[in-house]
Write a structure and sequence with these properties.
Blueprint (H helix, E strand, L loop, with lengths): L2 E8 L2 H5 L5 H24 L6 E6 L2 E7 H19 L5 E7 L15 H15 L40 H9 L9 H20 L9 H10 L3 H5 L7 H10 L26 E9 L2 H6 L4 H26 L2 H4 L8 H5 L6 E6 L2 E7 L3 H16 L4 E9 L4 H28 L11 E5 L8 H9 E4 L5 E4 L7 H17 L3 H12 L5 H12 L2 H17 L20 E2 L9 E4 L2 H11 L11
Parallel strand pairs: 8-9, 11-13
Antiparallel strand pairs: 1-3, 1-4, 2-3, 5-7, 5-8, 6-7, 10-11, 12-13
Helix pairs in contact: 2-3, 2-6, 7-9, 9-11, 11-14, 14-17, 17-20, 17-21, 18-19
This protein binds zinc ion.
């Protein structure tokens, strides 16, 4: 019997994970998919019945090879597991491709399968266009809708007893405190909530083992041991924190035995920093489709998938260790919410992690540093591969669904700039040397659009072509990692200079005039109101970036030296010579100032 390749892909991951905006349900949903993907898929594959061999299984997708006559049964078995664990809310698309005769278990890993991989991908894309349709639900007048998603019909929570151990006394109390105490839920939402309780218990069993003196190997072994055989049989399990906690332990992250994840987004109010803001950080590896398309053999593909998956995890753990230490973020005891007084809280939460992307929630004050660390570490680990990041800083109570749209569009804008830079480098024959990592951010202030590009066109970009052809860019977004590092350093350094938030606000107003008349007049007048060292500092920060945008002409060293058009600098590297292009970093500086500096925390604001 010949062999077949099988490819799986989870349908509508985001619809399932972000179907409701409660943190617990998002996490539970994400954990369910991760568990199905990393554990259930592999266990079923390696069972005696199928003996399918894994190429990879992460990021919501998976590829295997198996005897052709067993392929259909394996797929049906896996689909049944997905239906069972998610209450029918998540499904898998798949594709099967029969390999040529002569390819067998003995030689498959040495065979070049490039054309076969391409066909498999193509078939999967075809099938994904037509995912299995959802069954029409009965519509009966006495059935109640789910209190959480409001879409499905509610059911009794006894149905979960096969999978989820019942709530503890504490959990009952906790739920009774919530507004949804009288809520009824559909099976899918119940399973998400139940899985979140499973994860909570698993974390609480792991943490006492996370002693600094425990070796990494020993800790990993203990982590694997926290889920009992009996629980495993019932399908209780977790694959996200069981990877993240050893990763953090490896970095010597300082745990607290009683620490818990934030119970909901409001818990982010317990972290220091300005304005009661939180941030979503969304990172996604660049050009992975292309990279996978270059793989010729199974071992190459397996190695790449594993490397990317591990690099994302490790980059996240490094960033958490550097910027999200518990004690650095928790407010003093008297300012904590009731929940946070009971036990410390991780100053972050992981909403999605695996394959080539991750989405986390962090305190706004640490978001850009986290984004920068993740970007740099990933590139360092993967040398030829990079990622881009979108960051959205928003009030804690801002509707999650809108934030998600915003962070997606913010990331998309970053990736677009990265791929343009890559295309440009390709035409110059420098593609191997380019770092196309980009970091973009957006501060939610009540603009009426959720789309970064629309906001960019409306607020940060202006062009005039009547009198002279001029373009103004009031932002340097999206940033290259080294430029963002420079900006963050400048903002931190400026904190000591006490620039005063009122003056910074006036500077913002001057920039937003977007011209070389009133904008420059306002900017220069403002400069003169600062003391000498403050003034020099602000001017230097603009021209520091100007230098990075200047083309050096060895024949004429003065060419392109920036004219004094503060708060702007002239970009002489711009490719379109018909236009005069002006840019400034100052608006970005002002927008991030309150989040990055500590000035906002103190009441001193000299004007
Ligand atoms: Zn529901």
């Amino acid at each position: 019997m010949g062999l077949s390749l099988i490819a799986f892909d989870t349908d509508h991951i985001k619809q399932f994970v972000f179907g409701t905006s409660k943190l617990k349900e998002i996490r539970g949903a994400s954990s369910l998919l991760d568990y199905l993907n990393r554990r259930t898929m592999l266990e079923l594959a390696s069972s005696e019945k199928y003996k399918a061999v894994c190429i990879y299984a992460n990021g919501g997708a998976g590829q295997f090879y198996i005897e052709s006559d067993k392929a259909e049964a394996f797929i049906r078995g896996l689909q049944a597991e997905y239906r069972k664990l998610t209450g029918g809310a998540a499904s898998l698309s798949y594709a099967i491709h029969a390999l040529p005769e002569g390819v067998n278990r003995a030689n498959i890993e040495d065979t070049v399968l490039k054309a076969e991989f391409e066909l498999l991908d193509w078939k999967l894309q075809e099938n994904k266009q037509h995912p299995p349709s959802v069954l029409a639900l009965p519509s009966l007048p006495f059935m109640r809708h789910c209190s959480s998603c409001g879409v499905e019909y509610a059911c009794a929570d006894e149905i979960l007893e096969d999978v989820i151990s019942s709530k503890s006394r504490d959990e009952e109390d906790e739920e009774n405190n919530e507004e949804e105490a009288n809520g009824v839920y559909c099976e899918s939402c119940l399973r998400k909530r139940g899985q979140d309780r499973n994860v909570k218990r698993i974390i609480s069993k792991i943490l006492p083992e996370a002693d600094i003196s425990t070796s990494s190997e020993e800790f990993k072994r203990r982590v694997e041991g926290v889920v009992t055989t009996n629980e495993k049989k019932k399908g209780v399990g977790e694959a996200l924190w069981m990877r993240v906690l050893p990763g953090l332990h490896n970095q010597d992250y300082k745990f607290d035995v009683n620490i818990e994840r934030p119970a909901d987004f409001n818990e982010f109010a317990n972290f220091k920093g300005a304005k009661q803001y939180l941030a979503l950080v969304y990172a996604d590896a660049n050009n992975m489709g292309q990279a996978f398309a270059k793989c010729k053999t199974i071992p190459e593909k397996r190695k790449l998938a594993q490397a990317v998956d591990e690099a994302i995890l490790q980059a996240l753990c490094v960033a958490i260790n550097e910027h999200l230490q518990i004690e650095r973020h928790l407010k003093p005891e008297e300012q904590l919410t009731e929940e946070a007084r009971k036990h410390p809280i991780f100053p972050f939460d992981i909403l999605l992690l695996g394959g080539d992307d991750m989405l986390i929630a962090v305190p706004a004050s640490a978001a850009l540093d986290v984004a920068l660390s993740v970007t740099k570490k990933f590139h360092e680990l993967m040398s030829n591969h990079t990622l881009s990041v979108g960051v959205v800083l928003a009030p804690i109570r801002y509707p999650f669904g809108l934030l998600l749209d915003m962070v997606e569009s913010t990331l998309k804008f970053a990736k677009k700039a990265g791929s343009e830079a890559r295309a440009q480098a390709r035409t110059e024959g420098k593609e191997d040397k380019i770092d196309d990592s980009r970091i973009n951010f957006m501060v939610v202030t009540g603009s009426n659009s959720n789309d970064f590009e629309a906001i960019y066109d409306e607020t940060y970009y202006k062009r005039y072509k009547d009198y002279r052809k001029e373009k103004f860019y009031a932002t340097l977004r999206p940033y290259k990692p080294e430029d963002l590092g420079l900006l963050l350093d400048m903002i931190r350094e400026s904190d000591k200079k006490r620039l005063g938030r009122t003056k910074l606000h006036q500077l913002r107003e001057a920039v937003l005039k977007m011209n070389l008349t009133s904008s420059v007049y306002g900017g220069l007048a403002l400069l003169n109101h600062w003391r000498y060292e403050q003034r020099t500092y602000v001017a230097e920060q603009v021209y520091g970036f100007a230098n990075r945008y200047r083309l050096r002409d060895p024949e004429n060293p003065l060419h392109g030296y920036p004219r004094v058009v503060f708060p702007w600098f002239r970009d002489t590297s711009a490719s379109d010579k018909d236009w005069d292009v002006y840019r400034t970093s100052l608006l970005d500086f002002v927008e991030l100032y309150d989040f990055v500096t500590r000035e906002a925390e103190s009441s001193i604001d000299e004007n």
